[in-house]
UniProtKB/TrEMBL annotation:
Protein's recorded name: Inner membrane protein YbaN
PANTHER family given in the database record: INNER MEMBRANE PROTEIN YBAN (PTHR35813)
Keywords attached to this entry: Membrane, Transmembrane, Transmembrane helix
Transmembrane segments: 53-74, 123-142, 149-166
UniProt keyword annotation of Transmembrane present: yes
Organism: Gimesia panareensis
Organism placement in taxonomy: Bacteria, Pseudomonadati, Planctomycetota, Planctomycetia, Planctomycetales
Gene of this entry: ybaN
Record flagged with keyword Membrane: yes
Length: 168
């Protein structure tokens, strides 16, 4: 089983002893229904035309997620979560292959199971964004306006990464 929704638990997860923070609580209150849909046992597979549409959407979001690894302005995790969402409904076998992926699988599993990202992954993502943006600013012939827009988008991306719930 992948992940149980935190708000439905009877235990007091918000106590200081558990290390639960307000960002995590807010995340669970907003997204538990979506995260529970990533549970393979709870979701029936689709058939027919709907299956074809879901496979196309899974492929589309997977491509966006892979692009997000290299492009600092495109997030990776949300697209991979959407990929998993559609794959569970069409082909649990393909979803398991995605989860076993050496590059993307571990981050996706941690996000689905624990609802967060390790600090080392955040540091790596921010470092890649900074390196790519710096190289672009130094070596590209873009206008000052485009470079400014690129820096602004990169700052938004970095802010999103920083605000992701962390794993302890």
């Amino acid at each position: 089983m992948l992940r149980k929704s935190q708000p439905h638990q009877q235990e007091s997860d918000s106590s200081p002893e558990t290390g639960m923070n307000l960002d995590r609580l807010a995340f669970d209150e907003i997204h538990p229904a979506f995260l529970d849909t990533l549970d393979e046992q709870a979701v029936p597979t689709v058939t027919g035309l709907k299956k074809g549409i879901y496979l196309v959407l899974a492929a589309f979001f997977f491509l966006l997620g892979v692009l997000g690894v290299a492009l600092p302005v495109l997030p990776t995790t949300p697209f991979l979560l959407l990929t998993s969402y559609f794959l569970i409904r069409t082909s649990p076998r393909l979803n398991q292959a995605l989860l076993r992926s050496p590059v993307l699988g571990q981050v996706l599993k941690e996000w689905q199971q624990d609802g967060g990202v390790r600090l080392s992954v955040k540091i790596q993502a921010i470092s890649i964004v900074v390196l790519i943006i710096t190289a672009t600013l130094i070596f590209s012939p873009l206008s000052l306006l485009l470079k400014s827009v690129l820096v602004a988008l990169a700052c938004v991306g970095i802010l999103v990464v920083i605000r992701l719930p962390g794993l302890h």
